[in-house]
């Protein structure tokens, strides 16, 4: 390797680090400002004019989340192609809906935000998360004010409060989407093997491209929201074959990943909710259908029908540029002034701040990787006690935070018991 090539690679790595550190600074500092404004709105409007509170809070959420979205759209120059019947595609975003999406890629949550932003409903994109995430500044605090669903991961507790939380979301005047990753964690070969061993033991459908869906949360939600939310959207996500994997770190590096999305609208009235068994059977059959869609996609590199390309949004670009100027420029000027003073104490403070930001950035990127999700029976820890196919900590809604724990023991009996503990009430 020549010296010039080596120097280029070093400069590229250093430049990427400073870019990521700068974006982290802007995201965190602007996010804290949004959290403060959200708190003020909550104290003054939530109990007196909830509709106005939600409309104003929508923009605070948008200003925060679209900074991340701008990385996908503009830093990596990526977009999406949408497939499906015209009625399904055109109705998405015009009504309250539950979204059932496959959970295979590290950036599938970014793609869901991309579509929500295209439909001008990014601030009303909802999901569920474990209760501990409430304590995380910017993201967790923003989710509190955004009325996200937080769960104790104990079904005995969650089932008492989940209905009220769903009713709050259903009462929104503007359309919302409630995103469910029913697989509970992102797909890896190891998790898939554990999932299919569980499916065999329970005589459930075997899937090639998905993990077995966890049914308890969807069963409850479908039954509770019937008559309040009109539709379920089956959305299938795929990325064409590429040498690079669609990860958030690769987005930061500038690699492009154009996603393909298949839309199917299903009236919620068509989902059987007379019993948990009937709803579970419907969900398993849907995932068999999703598996066939994915099989065809890998063979043809496209979903059925004609695709419509959805371009990048200038809204996310302008929003990101504004906050990078408003916060980033004063911050960069402050660093320059400190470094040019020659004061070692101030320089050490700046260095410490950069190390802390690097740590935050590292853990944020690490958390987006598929192998950092829940173990789905691959974590070698003692199995939880199982009752009726669910762990004691069984959560009501399949959670994007992905922290369900399981375990694998050498004896076959313990393997089956443990997979039962990690499969959320199948």
UniProtKB/TrEMBL annotation:
GO terms for cellular component: endomembrane system. The chain crosses the membrane at residues 12-36, 321-339, 345-365. Residues 372-382 have a biased composition (Basic and acidic residues). Residues 372-426 are annotated as: Disordered. Keywords: Acyltransferase, Membrane, Transferase, Transmembrane, Transmembrane helix. Residues 97-219 form the Phospholipid/glycerol acyltransferase domain. One of its GO terms (molecular function) is 1-acylglycerol-3-phosphate O-acyltransferase activity. CDD domains: LPLAT_LCLAT1-like. Pfam families: Acyltransf_C, Acyltransferase. Belongs to the 1-acyl-sn-glycerol-3-phosphate acyltransferase family. PANTHER family: 1-ACYLGLYCEROL-3-PHOSPHATE ACYLTRANSFERASE-RELATED, 1-ACYLGLYCEROL-3-PHOSPHATE O-ACYLTRANSFERASE 3, ISOFORM E-RELATED. This is Phospholipid/glycerol acyltransferase domain-containing protein. The lineage of its organism: Eukaryota, Metazoa, Ecdysozoa, Arthropoda, Chelicerata.
């Amino acid at each position: 390797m020549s010296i010039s090539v080596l120097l280029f690679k070093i400069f590229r790595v250093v430049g990427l680090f400073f870019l990521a550190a700068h974006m982290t600074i802007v995201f965190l500092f602007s996010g804290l400002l949004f959290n403060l404004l959200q708190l003020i709105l909550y104290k003054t409007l939530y109990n007196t004019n909830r509709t106005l509170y939600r409309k104003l809070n929508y923009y605070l959420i948008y200003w925060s989340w679209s900074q991340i979205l701008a990385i996908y759209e503009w830093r990596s120059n990526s977009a999406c192609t949408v497939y499906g019947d015209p009625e399904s595609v055109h109705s998405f975003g015009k009504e309250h809906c539950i979204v059932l999406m496959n959970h295979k890629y590290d950036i599938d949550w970014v793609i869901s935000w991309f579509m929500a932003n295209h439909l001008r409903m990014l601030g009303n994109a909802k999901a569920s998360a474990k209760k501990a995430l409430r304590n995380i500044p910017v993201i967790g605090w923003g989710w509190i004010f955004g009325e996200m669903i937080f769960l104790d991961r104990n079904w005995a507790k969650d089932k008492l409060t989940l209905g009220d939380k769903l009713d709050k979301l259903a009462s929104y005047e503007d359309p919302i989407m409630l995103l469910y990753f029913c697989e509970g964690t992102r797909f890896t070969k190891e998790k898939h093997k554990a999932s299919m061993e569980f499916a065999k033991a329970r005589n459930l459908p075997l899937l090639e491209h998905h993990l077995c869906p966890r049914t308890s949360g969807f069963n409850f939600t479908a039954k509770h929201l019937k008559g309040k939310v009109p539709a379920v959207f089956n959305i299938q996500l795929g990325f064409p074959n590429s040498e690079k994997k669609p990860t958030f770190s690769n987005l930061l590096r500038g690699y492009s990943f154009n996603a393909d999305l298949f839309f199917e609208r299903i009236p919620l009235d068509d989902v059987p909710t007379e019993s948990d068994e009937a709803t579970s059977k419907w969900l398993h059959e849907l995932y068999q259908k999703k598996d066939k869609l994915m099989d065809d996609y890998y063979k043809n590199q496209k979903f059925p029908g004609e695709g419509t390309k959805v371009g990048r949004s200038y809204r996310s670009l302008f929003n990101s540029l504004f906050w990078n100027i408003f916060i980033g420029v004063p911050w960069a000027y402050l660093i320059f002034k400190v470094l040019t003073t020659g004061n070692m104490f101030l320089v050490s403070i700046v260095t410490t701040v950069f190390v802390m930001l690097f740590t935050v950035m590292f853990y944020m990127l690490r958390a987006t990787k598929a192998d950092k999700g829940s173990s789905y029976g691959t974590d070698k820890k003692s199995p939880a006690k199982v009752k009726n196919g669910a762990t004691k900590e069984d959560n009501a809604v399949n959670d994007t935070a992905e922290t369900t724990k399981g375990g694998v023991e050498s004896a076959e009996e313990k393997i089956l018991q443990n997979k039962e503990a990690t499969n959320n009430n199948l």
